[in-house]
Structure formats: C-alpha cells, structure tokens
C-alpha cells in the first residue's frame, strides 16, 4: 500500500496510535521508539525516498489525525487541549530529528560505499588488477569507454593531493566548466593528481596541465605534469600511467627543464637504461678521467650538456654556463685531453653526449659506479 506521497505507508508504522497515546499521557518519545524511527529513516533513504518527502509524510499524517487524537478531542478546557497539542508537537519534532539522523546515516554510508567503489576501480584501472572485460563494464559507470585509446596525465607538487585538496576541486571545476562532461576521469593516486582522457581529447589534457601548474599558484599548484603515450584498452591506461610516472621520475633525477613533459619526448632514456651495466661501463670509460680535472668532473659534464643544448655554438653555450667563451674553450680542451674524445668530431661528440646523459641518469660522479 502506498501513501499519498508515494512512500509506502509502512514507513509510518503505528505513528497515529503513538500520537494518540502521547496526546493523553503527555510523555516524551522513549529511546527505543526513537531508534525505530531512525531505522525507518535509514530504510527510506536506502529505498531512494527523499528526506523532504519523508518529513512531509509524517507532518501530513500528524495533521490528518490531529482532531481525532484523544488528548485533543476529549480535552475539557483550552488549557488541556494546549498541553496535549504541545506534547504531540514535541513528539513530532523528536521523531523528525530521529528520522533525519537515520536518513543522513544511510546517505553517509552510501557516499562512503560509492567512494570505496570508485577508489577500488581506480586502483584496478591504474594497476591492471582486474579482468579487462569486467573492468570495461565498471568503467562505464565512471564515464570511461575503455575501447578507445587513452592518455594519462599525472601532476605532482610539493604537497600530496587527495580528492578533497583545493587543487583537485579547482581543476575539476575548471575542466567541467570549459569542456562539460566528457569521457574523462579526474582522480588522485599516491598523492598525485591524475587525469585519464581519450587520445582525441588532447585539448582536455592540455587544459589539465595548464590548470594544474597555474591554478592558485604557491603550494597549491603542481610543479610538473607528465603525459604518457596513447594506448588502447584497459591495459593501455596502465601503460600510459606508468610512462607518465617514469617521465616524472626522470625529470626529478635529471632536473629536466619545463613544467610539462611528454613521455614520447623522453624515449631515449629507457633505451639508455635498458642495459644499465653497459651504460655504466660507457660512463666509466668515456668520462672516468674527468674526475682528475681541477674542480672535479661536474663542471665538465655541465659543459658537455650546455654545448649540446646550444648546438655547439660556443657563444650561446658560454652564455648558458655564465662563463666567458675563452673559459669554455679551455674546458673543451680539457675534456679532449682527459678523455681522448674530441667534441669537435661528430662521432666522438655523440659518444660524449650519450655518456653524459648516462652519467646524469646514474647520478655519476656523486654515486660511484
């Protein structure tokens, strides 16, 4: 049986009879009765009934039976009727409070369960720990269609980010305001801000990088954003995520310039590190003698990197190093003399550059090989 407002009448239980007793005795609702009402509020929320509809149900029922309540109908004076009415109103107020407590309890539980389900899905998505078919089904609940190719962007800053962090909320608000609801997932993982977007939604990824690194400034903004490459399917999301994390790790270890990095631009580094022993041998062989230079190997390694970045234009390299061209020429001569590799020779220059990159990746000479 349905009540007039669509909520089953069972949620009223014996409310009319209870009001009748209270109108006569004037007593307050007992703890057990309040607990029953709280349970009814919780059940109503679980059934999908809104709080306002539940309150309206109880108020309407109270109004309907008001004139038939024994304490009101049989009152011998205005004072007795007022006292009966006051008791009924007090009980109604307490009942609504109890119903609200139960309704809110159910809502909080539902939110926690939804958050837990979303977090479990994100963990499975980024770590590839679930069956691809099942993962694709779950992904649709969160706005992703994993049949498409996706790119993962990861932002990292001086503080750890969670779902409640102002930067996460601001970036989400900006993205929705600019692009609307798209096939995009914005979340946090391991203290980082993560955006998963289809490959054909590159403007969304660019905006994410912009908002993450500029929004608010100071400690709220991210220091760097790295983008993985585009890959199809659920496994592609995992791969793109790992590439973005790898790019962030390289950026930190090598102190790479720029606030936005693309893993596609850093593919040379995984190649260099694939055979770590061979790279260490190259660094020792080609650059090992630099440790005997006055001031150590570090200034000469910096010189090799600056010359490469300047396209071996001495004036530009000297400017980047903040030294004179004459000092730069002296350093280049020391590199040639100590290593036996001539920076003016194309092949030997390539060997020096590769060894210098390897040294940065391996942390040499600070970390012995």
UniProtKB/TrEMBL annotation:
PucR C-terminal helix-turn-helix domain mapped to chain residues: 300-355
Q: Origin, by domain of life? A: Bacteria
Q: Where are the transmembrane segments?
A: none
**Domain CdaR GGDEF-like per the UniProt entry, residue ranges:** 128-250
Question: What family does this belong to?
Answer: Belongs to the CdaR family.
Q: Which PANTHER family match?
A: CARBOHYDRATE DIACID REGULATOR, DNA-BINDING TRANSCRIPTIONAL ACTIVATOR ADER
Q: What is this protein called?
A: PucR family transcriptional regulator
Q: What is the lineage of its organism?
A: Bacteria, Bacillati, Actinomycetota, Actinomycetes, Kitasatosporales
């Amino acid at each position: 049986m349905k009540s007039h407002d669509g909520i089953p009448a069972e949620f009223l239980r014996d409310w009319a009879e209870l009001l009748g007793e209270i109108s006569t005795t004037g007593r307050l609702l007992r703890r057990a009765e309040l607990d029953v009402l709280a349970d009814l509020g919780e059940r109503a929320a679980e059934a999908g009934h809104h709080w306002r509809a539940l309150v309206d149900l109880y108020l309407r029922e109270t109004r309907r039976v008001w004139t038939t309540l024994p304490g009101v109908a049989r009152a011998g004076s205005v004072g007795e009727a007022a006292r009966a009415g006051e008791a009924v109103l007090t009980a109604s107020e307490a009942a609504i409070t109890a119903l609200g407590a139960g309704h809110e309890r159910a809502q909080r539980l539902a939110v926690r369960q939804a958050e837990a389900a979303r977090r479990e899905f994100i963990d499975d998505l980024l770590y590839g720990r679930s069956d691809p078919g099942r993962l694709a089904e779950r992904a649709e609940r969160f706005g992703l269609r994993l049949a498409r190719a996706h790119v993962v962007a990861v932002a990292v800053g001086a503080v750890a980010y969670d779902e409640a962090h102002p930067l996460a909320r601001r970036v989400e608000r900006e993205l929705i305001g600019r692009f609307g609801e798209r096939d995009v997932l914005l979340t946090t993982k391991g203290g980082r801000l993560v955006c998963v977007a289809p490959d054909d939604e590159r403007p969304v990824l660019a905006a994410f990088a912009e908002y993450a690194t500029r929004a608010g400034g100071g400690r709220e903004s991210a220091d760097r954003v790295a983008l993985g490459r585009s890959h199809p399917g659920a496994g592609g999301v995992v791969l793109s995520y790992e590439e973005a994390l790898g790019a962030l790790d390289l950026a930190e270890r090598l102190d790479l310039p720029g606030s936005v990095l693309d893993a596609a631009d850093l593919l040379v580094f995984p190649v260099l590190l694939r055979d770590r022993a061979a790279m260490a041998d190259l660094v020792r062989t080609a650059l090992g003698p630099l440790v005997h230079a006055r001031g150590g190997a570090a200034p000469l390694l910096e010189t090799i990197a600056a010359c490469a970045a300047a396209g071996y234009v001495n004036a530009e390299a000297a400017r980047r190093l903040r030294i004179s061209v004459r000092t730069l020429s002296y350093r280049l001569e020391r590199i040639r003399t100590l290593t036996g590799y001539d920076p003016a020779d194309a092949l030997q220059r390539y060997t020096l550059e590769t060894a210098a990159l390897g040294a940065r990746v391996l942390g040499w000479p600070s970390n012995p090989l």
